[in-house]
Design brief:
The complex is a heterodimer of chains A (142) and B (112). Chain A is an alpha+beta fold. In chain A, 34% of the residues lie in helices and 29% in strands. The mean pLDDT of chain A is 96. Chain B contains 5 helices and 5 strands. The chains are: A alpha+beta (142), B alpha/beta (112). The complex binds adenosine-5'-diphosphate and magnesium ion. The site of adenosine-5'-diphosphate (ADP) has 23 residues of chain A, from helix 2 and helix 5.
């Protein structure tokens, strides 16, 4: 993404479940300071939080990048984790490969990707098994 | 229902700015699965949960929820308390089960 986009970058630590979500918290704070509508901010922060949690529990962390242009906010989550074998299956509500120890932490209900689709205006998943996953979400702001 | 009334109905210990006790909250959702909270709790102010880790605060914060009620007699960790305070989220602890606490709040009109 080029041009006049504002760009924010965050490292998502894959070894620390406790800190998972900190990038989303910061994005929420930044978007509030920029004066966006609370409903839009909520959609963006929930969707990004789901994606950030996924990077921590399914991959080994990664990079989160947020681009802000006058009419759109784009969130890109990139990891070099195991990849997703069957994206259609992964998109189904309730489908999860998360182990029990993740479920006991409150995640792994298989609602993350469906939530990301529901809360964003556009969701693109690019994933190669053994290479990694890149998720791009767009939110129209105008 | 005000924060004060919520606390009274479920006999809760409250960690909040005293100035907020008369603030009115609407809607509630109860679950130990944060994924379900993220899917179903939009536009509700109160989260009831028996889960004890910092992600309960982040989940509530992402959804703009105002209050977390920890059920089944569990005690909030210092980390949870700090995070909640940082994000202006009221924290409560009740001895009641999620079923009983939810029932009492629903009966009192919260989320109805
Ligand atoms: N970043 C990722 N890397 C590898 N696999 C992923 C990633 N994100 C999601 N998945 C796969 O897609 C499934 C569904 O994801 P999701 O809907 O968020 O549910 P959950 O995280 O609760 O398992 C996951 O269980 C996992 O198999
Ligand atoms: Mg998930």
């Amino acid at each position: 993404m080029t041009g006049d986009a504002l760009h924010f970058h965050y490292d998502v630590d894959g070894n620390n479940f406790t800190s998972a979500g900190e990038a989303s918290v910061q994005v929420k704070r930044t978007l509030r300071q920029m004066g966006y509508h609370p409903d839009l901010i909520r959609r963006i922060s929930v969707a990004m939080y789901e994606g950030e949690i996924n990077m921590v529990i399914h991959a080994k962390g990664g990079d989160a990048d947020v681009y802000v242009t006058p009419d759109c906010i784009t969130v890109i989550l990139k990891d070099v984790g195991p990849g997703i074998k069957d994206i259609n299956l992964a998109m189904q509500e309730g489908y999860s490969t998360a182990p029990d120890n993740i479920r006991s932490l409150g995640f792994g209900a298989g609602m993350g990707l469906p939530n990301m689709k529901r809360y964003s205006d556009e969701l693109k998943i690019d994933s190669v098994v053994g290479v990694g996953t890149t998720i791009e979400m767009k939110f129209k702001s105008a | 229902m005000t924060i004060r009334e919520i606390a009274e109905r479920i006999n809760a210990v409250v960690y909040a700015d005293p100035d907020r006790l008369d603030e009115d909250l609407t809607g509630a959702f109860g679950s130990d699965m944060m994924s379900d909270v993220l899917a179903f709790a939009e536009n509700r102010d109160v989260l009831l949960t028996g889960l004890l880790n910092p992600q309960i605060v982040r989940t509530a914060h992402m959804l703009d929820m105002q209050c977390i009620i920890i059920v089944r007699g569990k005690t909030a960790t210092p980390e949870i308390k700090t995070l909640a305070a940082q994000n202006d989220i009221v924290l409560m602890e009740t001895q009641m089960t999620m079923y009983e606490a939810s029932g009492r709040l629903y009966e009192g009109g919260l989320g109805r």
